[in-house]
Design goal:
heterodimer; A: 111 residues; Alpha-Beta Plaits; two-stranded antiparallel sheet; 3 helices; B: two-stranded antiparallel ribbon; Dimeric_a/b-barrel (chain A); YCII-related domain-containing protein (chain A)
Chain lengths: 111, 459
């Protein structure tokens, strides 16, 4: 199954920040095992543009679609056997402790 | 249903559902086919007689229904072949093991089902509902009634949970290695909630029997897991008092007013046996040991309060909560005198979470009375009555206030007899497991927090 993993900031990170996993090692490990298909950090949130079309008119908004304290700062596209494997991949990402991760399965055909 | 069919169904239903889910991957189909098999038995057994292998008969009917349904839906041939190849009725035995994996580790489909229903990616309330519906076969309407939601809310909750299992890729598997140690407490927390949370209209636990049945099943399928044994022991020992816990009007009776001859001696004996398998100082074992002290005592004054106080000390050491501290103060009050109890009670209240709680006020009243300050004790009992959550609780506390005022200062023996702790359904099990589950999974029970607290504290 494919899971989109949103990497998000969090207002209450782990209080113990010793021994944080290394992001490069995490990427290498999961790329190597074929569990990470793609991924990147995002440019700062201030660079976001929200796009809507209403009654034929293009409406652009400066900034992200929702103003929240927790923002999406990156993504990884995972290929895992099931949710348990995806959780194992996510829990070793440094942002599991510095922020939070959201696992969203991609809809499969027929859904 | 006849008694015989009921007994067969209790064992066969989860087997049918669990196996059909593994093979078809379709939860609703599995439940429907298992229900249809039971319905067929209700219809045919009275006329044709009970088959020699009733569990196998039911499994065959359920399997055939599944094949029919899949055929109608023209599912791909592979799935159909798998279902058709399912263990035939002849091969079905009471403790049939479905598959051997890894180094001789055996996994039963029902165990897979338990771990999937209790997966931590599901909300705790969904796990409880799904376990009752899918494994125990309890109708959604009954679950809804016990958990104080409408049937349609409960049905939606169940549907959502099943969709999430399919859509999010929650595996149908028993975790192994370190993952098992991480996941088992969450499963036990669900059983614990089944035992302590839902209540019937008459105030009795609605699903205590189901929780006991599931704990027995886990103990059989996962031998050597001490916490499973501890939990089963706790259930059995608590449940042994079920017949004595209420008077004819349905009021909860304190321990000193229960007819101990009505306690279930067989359940107590089994509970003590099972408790011997548990580790000494795990949270469930400590609670079970407290329950064992009560279950084996001849009377309230004859109870081993020193041991109960030690168990609460250990529980507080693992995880200190206001409720554990409150119970600890009460236990020390019996074991080491009212003054010791009052000192611990003052500490339990420091955080402020027990402010205005009727049981905390009643405990202070009780300890104050035993210290000899009757006027103050009576006033405290009245304050506790004003804060009471239920009418019977309020009446009982007002009675205590009146008795305390009446009793002569030299009447101390009777006083001790009278000041027994309430036998609440959650008398000893108030806190550690739920807290622990929350600890492992960092999950709240949305919308039920206040109610949980109330029931934990002992309405």
């Amino acid at each position: 199954m494919k899971y989109m993993m949103f990497v998000c900031s969090d207002t209450e990170p782990d209080t113990d920040q010793r021994n944080l996993p290394d992001i490069d090692a995490w990427v290498a490990e999961n790329d190597g095992r074929g569990r990470r298909l793609d991924g990147s950090a995002f440019a700062p949130e201030s660079s976001a543009t929200t796009v809507r079309v209403r009654e034929g008119e293009l409406i652009l908004t400066d900034g992200p679609f929702a103003e929240t304290k927790e923002v999406i700062v990156g993504f990884d596209l995972l290929e895992c056997a099931d949710l348990d494997e995806a959780i194992e991949v996510a829990r070793t990402h440094p942002m599991a402790r510095l922020g939070r991760l959201e696992l969203r399965p991609l809809a499969v055909d027929g859904q | 249903m006849s008694t015989s069919l009921e007994a067969v169904a209790a064992d066969a239903y989860p087997r049918m559902v669990a196996t059909l889910i593994r093979v078809t991957g379709d939860w609703t189909l599995a439940e429907d086919c298992a229900q249809e098999a039971l319905a067929a038995a209700v219809q045919r057994w009275p006329q044709e007689g009970e088959p020699g292998n009733p569990g196998g008969w039911l499994m065959t009917v359920a399997r055939n229904r599944a094949i029919d349904a899949l055929r109608r839906a023209s599912v791909e041939r592979r799935k159909l072949a798998e279902v058709a190849a399912l263990a035939s009725a002849e091969a079905y035995e009471a403790d049939q093991i479905d598959e051997v994996i890894g180094e001789g580790e055996v996994v039963d489909d029902r165990l897979r089902l338990v771990f999937t229903c209790c997966h931590p990616a599901l909300a705790l309330e969904s796990r409880v509902a799904l376990t009752l519906r899918t494994i125990c076969g309890v109708p959604a309407a009954d679950i809804a009634r016990a958990f104080l939601v409408t049937e349609s809310t409960m049905t939606r909750r169940l549907t959502r949970a099943k969709s999430k299992i399919a859509d999010a890729g929650i595996p149908y598997r028993v975790p192994s290695g370190p993952a098992l140690a991480e996941r088992l407490p969450g499963v036990l927390a669900v059983l614990y909630l089944l035992f302590t949370q839902g209540y019937n209209a008459d105030g009795r636990p609605a699903f205590a029997e189901e929780a006991i049945r599931l704990a027995r099943l886990l103990r059989r399928l996962m031998p050597g897991q001490g916490e499973v044994s501890a939990l089963l022991a706790l259930f059995l020992l608590q449940h042994s008092r079920r017949a004595a816990r209420q008077d004819d009007e349905g009021n909860l009776l304190p321990l000193d007013r229960q007819d101990r001859s009505r306690w279930d001696a067989a359940a107590i004996a089994e509970g003590l046996d099972v408790l011997a398998e548990a580790e000494r100082d795990s949270p469930y074992a400590l609670q079970a040991r407290i329950a064992a002290c009560h279950a084996t005592a001849p009377s309230v004054p004859g109870t081993d309060w020193a041991e109960i106080a030690r168990c609460y000390d250990a529980l507080a050491g693992i995880r200190s909560t206001p409720v554990v501290e409150l119970n600890r103060a009460v236990a020390h009050g019996y074991a080491h005198g009212a003054r010791a109890g009052l000192a611990l009670l003052a500490r339990a209240r420091e955080g402020g979470e027990l402010d205005g709680h009727p049981l905390a006020i009643a405990a202070e009243a009780d300890l104050t009375a035993r210290e000899g300050d009757r006027d103050r004790a009576a006033a405290l009992f009245r304050r506790a009555a004003a804060a009471a959550h239920t009418e019977p609780e309020r009446r009982a506390l007002l009675d205590r206030a009146a008795e305390t005022e009446r009793s002569a200062p030299q009447d101390r023996a009777a006083e001790t007899e009278r000041s027994a702790p309430q036998d609440r359904p959650a008398e000893t099990e108030h806190s550690a497991p739920q807290d622990r589950a929350a600890d492992v999974e960092r999950q709240a029970l949305p919308g039920r927090a206040a109610e949980t607290t109330r029931q934990e504290l002992g309405s």
